[in-house]
């Protein structure tokens, strides 16, 4: 099962995996229909502290991930990483499968702690998190979920490892929909870019300038900007600003958190400066953005 733990600073609900038994509290896999029946507040924006994967076999509606809206349809799979804000709006009955697992679930099984980041759908980009499963793969994907549900019904050491193998098999199959079967090793610049993005995700509230990140990467600001321009088509400063804006939107989800409190959380010197910054890059004020959100799911 899941439990909710309100976060004092963030305000909106954060779901954690818990109550799965004393032996293995790091994974949950089950059909989606009973999962929905058990958790009635999926329409309210929330975060997870775990990886969250949903495969639909029936139903419709919409799903919003980090403020990107997607139409739900059968044979569609959603993959989310810890920290992303999302909510569902279903129409009629939906079914499929859900797989939740913590970051530690594979740590003792894999030598590479960053292995999951190799999969594009687990990189925290909403546009890459939605996969349409082709007809040729549907039977196999469904079979893997059925096997995982069966294994999860009674977990011991052997069955847990079998469950991990099935999950990794699923991820590898899904990866063929987004990347070449044998992707080329990351270039030096691509590795630097990924490390830059990880640093931004960790320090965006305190480090705002490209030169700060260039220093952490032991390269020049010009080199960092050139990498971002070549591989992303945007400057390093834009990468940092987009991450700040994303977190601002995530915090504004909570109506009990004042705009001034959001500004303070993001280390803006005052509310006025934060409002100007937000409006410059979103073309709307924090208050107007929040009001639009309330209209969407209120």
Structure description:
With 298 residues, this protein is α+β, with helices and mostly antiparallel strands. The chain folds into 2 domains: 2-175, Jelly Rolls; 188-297, Arc Repressor Mutant, subunit A (Orthogonal Bundle), CATH 1.10.10. The protein is built from 10 helices and 9 strands. It has helices at 32-38, 135-152, 157-175, 188-203, 210-217, 221-232, 236-252, 259-265, 271-282, 286-297; strands at residues 2-4, 14-17, 27-31, 46-48, 51-65, 68-72, 76-80, 85-101, 130-132. Strands 1, 2, 3, 4, 5, 6, 7, 8 and 9 form a 9-stranded mixed sheet that branches. Strand 5 (51-65) and strand 6 (68-72) form a beta hairpin. The chain is globular and about 55 Å long. Residues 194-292 form the HTH araC/xylS-type domain. InterPro entries: AraC-bd (IPR003313), Homeodomain-like_sf (IPR009057), HTH-like (IPR037923), HTH_AraC (IPR018060). This is AraC-type DNA-binding protein. Keywords: DNA-binding, Transcription, Transcription regulation. One of its GO terms (molecular function) is DNA-binding transcription factor activity.
Question: Notable features of this structure?
Answer:
Arc Repressor Mutant, subunit A, disordered N terminus, single chain, alpha+beta, 20% strand, Jelly Rolls, 298 residues
